[in-house]
Amino acid sequence: MRVLIIGAGQVGRSIAQELQHDHDVIVIERSPQRLDLLRHYDVLAIHGNGASLKVLREAEAGRADLVIACTDVDEVNIVACAASKQQGAAFTIARVHDPEYIETWESGRLGVDFMVCSELLTSETIAELIGVPAAREVHTFAEGRILMAELSVDEDSPLVGRPLAELELPRGARIVSIIHDGWVRIPTGRDRIRPGDLIVSIGTPEAITQLNRRASGAAQAQDVVILGGGRIGYRLALTLERRGLHPRLIESDPERSRWLAEQLPHTQVFQSDATDLDFLERERIGEADVGVSVLRRDETNLLCALLLKSLGVPRVIVGVSDPNYIRVFERVGVDVAVSARKVVAEEILRFTKSRIAGMSILEGDRAEVIEITVTEESPLAGVPLKEANFPEGATIGAVVRGKEVLIPRGSDVLRPGDRAIVFARKDVVPEVEKRL
Amino acid sequence: MSRSRSLAVHLRSAFHLLALVLQWLGLAFLVPLGAAGVYGEPLWPWLLTLGVTSALGLAVRWITREAEEVRVREAFLVVGLSWLLLAALGSLPYLLLGALSPLDALFESMSGFTTTGATVLPDIEGQPRSLLLWRALSQWLGGMGIIVLAIAVLPKLAIGGRQLMEAEVPGLEVERLTPRIRETARALWKVYVGLSVVQLLLLMGVGLAPFEALAHTFTTLSTGGFGTRSDSLASFPVPAQWLVVGFILLGGTNFALLYRALRKPLRAPGTLWRDEEFRFYLAVFALITGLLFVNLWGFYGSAETALRHSAFQVASIMTTTGYASADFDRWDPAAKLLLLALMFLGGSAGSTGGSIKLVRTLLIFKLLIREVRRVLHPQAVIPIRLGSRVIGEEALRGVAAFAILYVTLFALGSIVFMLDLQRAGLDVPVLDAISAVAASLGNVGPGFGVVGPMASYAPLPETSKLLLMFLMWIGRLEIFPVLVLLTRDYWRG
Questions:
Q1: What's the rounded Cα separation, in Å, for the pair B442 and B449?
Q2: Lesser CB count within 10 Å: N end or C end of chain B?
């Protein structure tokens, strides 16, 4: 596949890195310094403005199977996609920061086949995490009918200690993996969960919520405090308001906080510095169920997150821009770190895997959960699962058949048209794709 | 001439417009002229008034020809003066028919145009019908506003009309129903005229004579309060009293809101209910009616009578109409105090009602609640909303300033009024005296005691009448447009 990436920022580079071995990748970038970072990649780097016709012609945008525009400027991305489409590109994806453009795009395609908004995706991801209190990672599949959650299991959880086969799991959910000390394993009925383990489960949202309650004593979050009223903070508050919550939002800029207060009728907006300890204590921020820090700088976010922890907030979620920080942050005490760039890269990458409709990358990138449609030619179709030779290191978490959601057992048979939500180790993903 | 050149106000253009407005509104005298013809009453006072008005208008227009368009500054002068001049010209018939002395005629006319409804007219039943009709018509014209009417009819006012309308229409701002201000003015008048026709037919339907039905139609939706009987509406049939309650309440509603509701009649209840001021309006009406009902049940002994008088009086005083279905001066002090408090509420913004207006009261409540919350959460950012709309801090400051100014004017007016009564040797109880000031400033009409619903303002000294007239004028225009005229900056630029 011929992939044209416009903009070699963090998102552009991580996509290029992921695709360089299997695809022909061309990258257009305006800044020579950033272009220089691509030296070690197996890609064709072109210097220039991605919205200029001359540069697009030089990159032969018309021949591209996929154009990904992810510069920092929304308008440039949209124009670049439209121009590439005009040239004959097969599929175009534009990344934007401002969610308003999504609405504009939905009303009139603008030559953009798909638009992703990093702020919107990030705020949605954080909102999902708030909804499942024990989750380290949450991802929806099949238009939200299936949820994948990576849950941390408390010491006193009833799930601990007994063989999986003896656990009465909620109907509609499966445990597809147990992660012990960073070691990803697909469990059998004899395996037991140890305290502090992470479990990956796939199922209906209701079942996942029930499983979450058994994994950890944490109740559904009511009092959410958001630090930072930027685009992510604003969108998150809006999403939580729609769920009927009344979040508290702290923003330091007077004008922005006034704007936020006007836009968010059910959110309590405070104009204060997020590190003002007197303020945090006076407003009893420590009594919140969940704290979310989505300030501008990663370092400030870490500081504030740890501050919230020290004040007694049981669960703190941080939005980071640098994906490398995720593990660092989680190591020093942040419960969950969400990287906007990682979320966006995931969303864009699924278009490079022809039949995969959705995907989520787990544990660095050691495992993936993918949504894949079973075809007529699939060797697994029509055979009971226990007799099928499914690759080791992969398991089917759930199957969507029409409007039904099935949690498959050994005797079940896959039919063409079924959408399977599959958990797989990174190395067996291509194999899974082939078998289905 | 050299002095006028140093003025910041363009007097020529202001007077040119003023003359135009007067000339056209002079046509209103055709209505009582027609009535005089029908009832065989003297025609000459009406012809003379019509002639004087038209001649004055024509002369001033000729003197001020080649005038420029009015701007914001001139708008205040035009609005302020047009109400004064109209009151003056409107007083001519009372004078010419020999009903009143010059000052009393001016008082009656001012009370009419400002929809106050305070009267000095003796022996109301004995007056010519054409005069009573004119008295009612002046309230109907003043209710929706003469400038709004002028904008609706006169093509010349299309530009600069917004400033004029802002200066006249009560409330926070003029709600633009259409992109063009002239169409907005017309829409408001359409609702006003339409509802008036409905009320006229309904009143005739419950058995009122056409003359009385028309006169009361003129003074109900305009929240005016002039009647054709000296006992106001006390001797009206019961169904007519209930009917009037309904139309008084409509008169106290925002006409822009009524227009939007009537455009989609099927969804009208939803449109009305979504409006926060309207909900507040109904809640206050229901609450105070309930309180008064409890108070009056024992007094009247019959639940229906007590309920009817409570609902009627609360609607009438709250919307600043000033009708009476009973002599509320005979009620106990608690009930009277309740009515006095109602005089400060007024109708909705954009209605024909006077006083502070419900929307301001509502916003002031919200401001107070915010202050309390601020004590607990000093850094909370709390915008104030009306429905889903955020009200800017600038507008809120205006609301607070207006309320303070209103109460200050009431207090100062009461003191001056009391002193003047004392000077004239009139012994009036404090409650009665302040009721007269509140009723004038709020364009309500009747107060208690000497100025009670079945009594008259006639016994007051002339200086007091002048004071009350000033309060009616400044109250109708919501203080600021008049106050602006009294500042040095306005004239000097």
A1: 18
A2: N
